[in-house]
Amino acid sequence: MTTAKDIMHPGAHWIPAHETLDRAAQMMRDHTVGALPVSAGGEKDRMVGIITDRDIVTKCVASGHDPSTVTAGELCDGTPRWIESSADVDAVLETMQSRRIRRLPVIEDKKLVGMISEADLALHLSDEQVAGWAEKVYSRA
């Protein structure tokens, strides 16, 4: 059985909710990622959301806000989603499809151990699985 841990990109990094969006953008650049889970108060704290490079551009910069004054916590909305590292691929796909999300943090022993993105799905799953996922996540219905 293929698990979330088998297909995730290991070594995901948190950003504390109090950090500014310019710092988040720097972290994304430095780690070559497009998303960061946001923690309530530090590296090992609970996840309060996730921010993406697109969020920074569309919800901050394009709205005329200064990314050096807006915090990661201010940008988070909704209930954060994650999956246990031992979950099978069907559970990963169901979680991402039902919530229409493109990135999914992976947790093991209450610690962030990785992230699953579209690229990880494309690398590890069949063309049929990826196509089914994309149809459900990207459809307008």
TrEMBL record:
Give the transmembrane region(s). Answer: none
Task: List the Gene3D superfamilies.
Answer: CBS-domain (3.10.580.10)
Q: Tell me the domain of life.
A: Bacteria
Keywords of the record, alphabetical order, are: CBS domain
Q: Matching Pfam families, A to Z?
A: CBS
SUPFAM superfamilies on file = CBS-domain pair
Q: Give the CBS domain ranges.
A: 8-68, 76-132
Please state what the protein is called.
CBS domain-containing protein
Q: What is the lineage of its organism?
A: Bacteria, Bacillati, Actinomycetota, Actinomycetes, Kitasatosporales
